[in-house]
UniProtKB/TrEMBL annotation:
It catalyses: ATP + protein L-histidine = ADP + protein N-phospho-L-histidine. Residues 144-227 form the Histidine kinase/HSP90-like ATPase domain. This is histidine kinase. Pfam families: HATPase_c (PF02518), HisKA_3 (PF07730). The keyword Kinase applies. GO terms for molecular function: ATP binding; phosphorelay sensor kinase activity; protein dimerization activity. Keywords: ATP-binding, Kinase, Nucleotide-binding, Phosphoprotein, Transferase, Two-component regulatory system. Gene3D superfamilies: 1.20.5.1930, Histidine kinase-like ATPase, C-terminal domain (3.30.565.10). Residues 35-100 form the Signal transduction histidine kinase subgroup 3 dimerisation and phosphoacceptor domain. InterPro entries: HATPase_C_sf, HATPase_dom, Sensor_HK_TwoCompSys, Sig_transdc_His_kin_sub3_dim/P. It is an enzyme of class 2 (transferase). It comes from the Bacteria. One of its GO terms (cellular component) is membrane.
Length: 236
């Protein structure tokens, strides 16, 4: 009787170990898949945005070489810096490193992105901030950053926009990023990886994401994310 009890006890333990090993492998597989998806989103958004700026900037340089060599050289130097910054951003994405300057507000950060993009793509960008600016949590900060980069890139690359309107709205309970362009409008085909990625990012933060046509004939992107208590600190 004791031998039989020991036998069944051993079988039960072995079965439990097999189950634990199975679930361990499942967790590992899911973790790797999530990390792969995160990295794919980061690289798509950051690299795509940088390449669009550099390629369009190089187009301008090829023209300036003949008409204004000195200005062409200056623009080439700026593009070199954009490429370096893009490479550094890719490295940060891979290693999940925080940006070097932690003291920059979201509005300042957005202003920098808009100025860089406008300079290298010959696009007019009109930026507006509504409401009292607040510090926002890092996940919200970087999610809205990626959404802005994707919206700017799509507006220029696919919509051929001449003017892009960027608006940040601070509400007591949420923050909204609204990007409108005067391009050729939305493609009715299936949404691409970038659009799907933006939607997933926003949904992961319990926010809402919308794409629609607008009065300019182009596309309007609206990203709204609720602010947690840690994201409601006023900028002094």
């Amino acid at each position: 009787m004791a031998l039989e009890s020991n036998y069944f006890g051993k079988v039960e333990i072995e079965e439990q170990n097999r189950v634990l090993e199975y679930y361990s492998k499942q967790v590992e597989r899911i973790t790797l898949l999530e990390e792969r998806n995160r990295l794919a989103r980061e690289l798509h958004d950051s690299v795509g945005h940088t390449f669009t700026s550099v390629i369009m900037g190089m187009d301008a340089v090829s023209y300036l070489i003949d008409t204004n060599p000195e200005e062409g050289k200056k623009k080439l130097d700026r593009l070199r810096e954009v490429a370096r910054n893009g490479l550094e951003e890719v490295r940060r994405s891979i290693h999940q490193m925080a940006p070097l300057d932690e003291g920059v507000s979201f509005s300042e950060h957005i202003t920098h992105i808009c100025k860089e993009f406008a300079s290298h793509t010959n696009t007019k960008i009109v930026k507006q901030v509504e409401g009292e600016e607040r510090r926002i949590a890092k996940p919200i900060f970087w999610t809205l950053t990626r959404c802005l980069q994707e919206a700017l890139t799509n507006a220029k690359r696919h919509g051929h926009a001449k003017t892009i309107y960027v608006k940040i709205i601070y509400h007591i309970d949420w923050i909204e990023l609204r990007v409108e362009d005067d391009g050729i409008g939305m493609n009715e085909e299936k949404p691409g990886f970038g659009i799907i990625s933006m939607n997933e990012r926003i949904e992961s933060l319990k926010g809402s994401f919308m794409l629609t046509g607008n009065q300019y004939g182009g596309v309007t992107m609206i990203c709204r994310i609720p602010l947690s208590n840690e994201g409601k600190e006023k900028i002094s």
